[in-house]
Design goal:
Strand 1 and strand 2 form a beta hairpin. It is globular, with a radius of gyration of 13 Å. It is built from no helices and 5 strands. Strands 1, 2, 3, 4 and 5 form a 5-stranded antiparallel β-sheet that branches.
């Protein structure tokens, strides 16, 4: 495999270093997006990169698990 090849998969090890840009709450990985339990926003992950732009986030109904 080429050393310069980029993964299009989000690395969950990075999750602990990220916070919701709207409320600074914790994020959790669910499928192909990051969810903020505190403010009910969902941020897409595109080509392995989370799009943490508040204006592009979806507002969702959060299920506690």
């Amino acid at each position: 495999m080429n050393k310069l090849a980029r993964s299009s998969v989000f690395d969950p090890a990075v999750l602990a270093q990220l916070a919701c840009p709207a409320c600074y709450g914790d994020l959790r990985l669910e499928g192909s997006r990051l969810l903020c339990i505190a403010c009910s926003r969902a941020y897409a992950i595109v080509d392995g990169i989370p799009v943490l732009i508040v204006e592009q986030a979806e507002t969702i109904a959060v299920r506690e698990s």
